[in-house]
Amino acid sequence: MISVDNIEVDFGAVTLFKDVSFVINDRDKIALVGKNGAGKSTLLKILAGKSRPTKGTIATAKDTRIGYLPQVMAISDSKTVFEEAEKAFAHIDEMRQRIEKLRNEMAERTDYDSAEYHDLIDRFTQAEEIYAINGGNTYHAEIEKTLIGLGFRRSDFDRPTSEFSGGWRMRIELAKILLLNPDVLLLDEPTNHLDIESIRWLESFLINKANAVILVSHDRAFINNITNRTIEISCGRIYDYRVKYDQFIRLRKERREQQMRAYENQQKAIAETEEFIERFRYKATKAVQVQSRIKQLEKIDRIEIDDEDNSVMSIKFPEAIRSGNYPVITEGLTKRYGDHTVFEDVNITIKRGEKIALVGKNGEGKSTFVKCVMGEIPHDGKVIIGHNAKIGYFAQNQAQLLDDTLTVYDTIDHIAQGEIRTKIRDILGAFMFGEDAIDKRVTVLSGGERTRLAMIRLLLQPVNLLILDEPTNHLDMRSKDVLKAAIKDFGGTAIIVSHDRDFLDGLVDKVYEFADGHVREYIGGIYDFLAKKDIDSLAQLNQTKRSKAADTGQQAHGDETAGRNDYEERKQLNKRIRKIEAQIKEKERHIETLENELASVEQQLSTPDGASDTSLYEKHKALKQDIDSAMAEWESLNEELTLTNKPN
C-alpha cells in the first residue's frame, strides 16, 4: 500500500537516515524501533505526508486512507466528547444530506411514470444502500463502543472536551482515528495516556480490526502482542525483520555479533594497511605498492556499529536504615471533592519488603491515594507511616523541583556518593543522556528529559520506602530495564503506580485495583491480576444471569440449585470458548498453508517462464481471494471469542 524508495533525511549537516527502502503491505503490523533520536517519529511524519524526505520517494496506492496519531497534537475544544468523535463520520453526514435532498425531490415530483422519475428512484435507492454499507445506521454504536473501550463513561459523552485533561483529549483523537477505519494506522506512543484496561482494549482492536499498523512504543508487551514485523532504525539505516519484537531482539543480537566480528576484522586489515603505508612511505622501490594501498583504504566501505551500549548497566540504591515492619497503614482512608467520592474506607497494610502495584482506570484515585500517603492533600481516615520509614517519592512534578542553574552532570554529581561517582556518565547514558547532553543546563531540558533526570536523582538516594507514580513515562526500553532491575534488587518497600505490564511483570507481588470508589486487593503479579479479572468477569456474568432469572420468576429454588445452574452455565461457557479457540487455531493453520502456496506462486511468477504463464496469475488471484476470505472468518472468530469472554 505504501512504498518507500531510497529516502534520505538531512537536518543541516547531519544525516538522520539514508538509502531507506521498504514496503508496507496489507495486514502488516510493524513495530518501528530504534534508540531515541534515531528518526522513528520523523519517519512516521513522512509516511503520514506531514513531512517530506530530503531525497527519495514515497508512493501510496490510490485511495489509501492513512490515520496518524502523533505524540503531541493541537486539539479542538469546541464540542462535546461524542460530537468530536462523530467528526470521523463526516462523510456519513454528507450521505444523509444527499439522501434527504433526493427524498425531497421525489416528494415534489408528480411525473411518476417518466424515465427521469425512475432514474431518481434508482439514485435514491443506491444512495441508501451506500449509506447502509458505510454504517450509516450503526455508526453511533461504533462511537459508543470505541469511546467506552478507551475508558470514557457514557456520562462523559455530553461533556465538553475542554473539561478533560490533555491525556483524555488525546484519547478522543485516538478514537476518531480508529473510527475512520484507515487502511494504514501510524501510531506514535499511543499508550502514553492509557490505563491497563484501555491498553488491552486497544490491543484487541489493533489485532482483530485494524488493517496495516506501524507502531512506535516503549511498551514492550503492547508491541509484542500486536506486531508481526519489526523495522529497526540504526546508524542511519533500517533493518527489516519479519518477526515479533521478542524474536527481533534475539536476531538483532546475532546481527550485532556478526557486525562486531566483521568490524574487528576490517579494523585489523585497516591497521595492517596503514602500518605498511607508514613503513614504506619514503622508499622509492615501494612507491607503487604504497599508492595502491592508499587507494584501497579510500575505497573501503567502513562498517559502522550502533553506539548503543547493550551491556548490562546496573544501579543499586544506597543502603538505608531498616524501616519498621509496616511502613504504610491506612485505616478508613477516604477522599472526597465536594459531592464526588474518589474512594472511601480504604484499609491497607503494607509490610516491609513488599512491592505492590496500584492499578485502575485514570481518574479512579491512584495518584490521589499516593498524595494522601505523602500528606500532600487533606483526607478523612488515617495514614500511618511506619517507624524509620525514609521515603523516596517520584511524581511528575518532581521534575520541576530540579535546580535550573546546574548542568545535567552536576545535578547527579552533587548527590552521588562513593563508588557510584565513577559511573555517572554510564548512568546518564542508560537514561538517554548522551555525551552531547550531559553539559546542558537543566533549564533548557524538555519535560521528558527533566523527568528522567529526577528519576536518576532518586535512584542514588538512600531510602527504604519507594513511592513511584508512573515512573516509566519518558523512558525507553533500556532505561526501563535499568530501573526495573534496580527496584527488583531494592531491599525496601515499593509502591508503584503504572500501566506498563511488562515493567510490572516479575516486579510486584501484590496488586491493588482502584475502581468505583473502592480498592480491592489481589495477591500475585500483574498477569495473575489480569487473569483473575477475567475470572471475576465470568463470575459477574453468572451473577447477572442469576439476577435476571430472579426478576422474571425463573430462578431455581434455593442456593444449591442456583449454584448447580451457575456451574452448568460456566461449564457450557468454557466449552464454547474452547471450541472457538480450536476453530481459530485451525483457521490460522489454513491461512499459513495458503500464504505458503501464495509465496511459492509469487516466486514462480518472478521467473521469466512463470511471468508468461497465465494460469499462474489465475492461481495467484484465487489464492489471494481465499486468504482474504479465511482472514475475514478468522477476524469474526476472534471477535466472537472476545464477546464470549466479555461480561454482559
Describe this protein's structure.
Keywords: ATP-binding, Coiled coil, Nucleotide-binding, Repeat. Residues 2-260, 328-541 form the ABC transporter domain. It holds the Pfam family ABC_tran. It is built from 20 helices and 18 strands. Strands 5-6-7-3-8-9 form a six-stranded mixed beta sheet, sandwiched between helices. 27% of the residues are buried. The protein has helices spanning 40-47, 81-86, 90-108, 115-133, 139-149, 166-179, 196-208, 220-226, 245-280, 287-299, 366-373, 408-413, 424-430, 447-459, 477-489, 501-504, 526-551, 558-605, 608-611, 614-645, and strands at residues 2-11, 14-24, 29-33, 55-60, 66-69, 184-188, 212-216, 229-234, 237-241, 328-337, 340-350, 355-359, 380-385, 391-394, 465-469, 493-497, 510-515, 518-523. Strand 8 (229-234) and strand 9 (237-241) form a beta hairpin. It has 648 residues and is of the alpha/beta class.
Strand content of the residues, in percent? 15-25%
The strand order across the widest sheet is 5-6-7-3-8-9
How large is the radius of gyration? 30 Å
Gross morphology is: globular
Number of strands: 18
Distinct helical segment count? 20
The level of helicity is 40-55%
Low-confidence stretches: 537-564
